Amino acid sequence: MPQLVPFFFLNTLFYGYIGLFIILLLVSSIILPYILKISIIRNIIVKL
């Protein structure tokens, strides 16, 4: 089935990019503010 190879490749690429985009959105909207909040709190505690 060599005629299905390009479709399989594009399908894999497409879902890979969608997965990466979703992971990037999650990291930028949830994990980064959490890390920023923790570092700000640490900074305040150290200055006390």
Automatic annotation (TrEMBL):
GO biological process, one term: proton motive force-driven ATP synthesis
Subcellular location: Membrane; Mitochondrion inner membrane
Record's GO cellular component terms: mitochondrial inner membrane; proton-transporting ATP synthase complex
Bilayer topology: Single-pass membrane protein
UniProt key word Ion transport: yes
Keyword Transmembrane helix found: yes
Stretches that traverse the bilayer: 12-36
Molecular function (Gene Ontology), one example: proton transmembrane transporter activity
Major subcellular site: membrane
Keywords: ATP synthesis, CF(0), Hydrogen ion transport, Ion transport, Membrane, Mitochondrion, Transmembrane, Transmembrane helix, Transport
Family: Belongs to the ATPase protein 8 family.
Subunit and partners: F-type ATPases have 2 components, CF(1) - the catalytic core - and CF(0) - the membrane proton channel.
Function comment: Mitochondrial membrane ATP synthase (F(1)F(0) ATP synthase or Complex V) produces ATP from ADP in the presence of a proton gradient across the membrane which is generated by electron transport complexes of the respiratory chain. F-type ATPases consist of two structural domains, F(1) - containing the extramembraneous catalytic core and F(0) - containing the membrane proton channel, linked together by a central stalk and a peripheral stalk. During catalysis, ATP synthesis in the catalytic domain of F(1) is coupled via a rotary mechanism of the central stalk subunits to proton translocation.
Protein name: ATP synthase protein 8
Organism: Pichia kluyveri (Yeast)
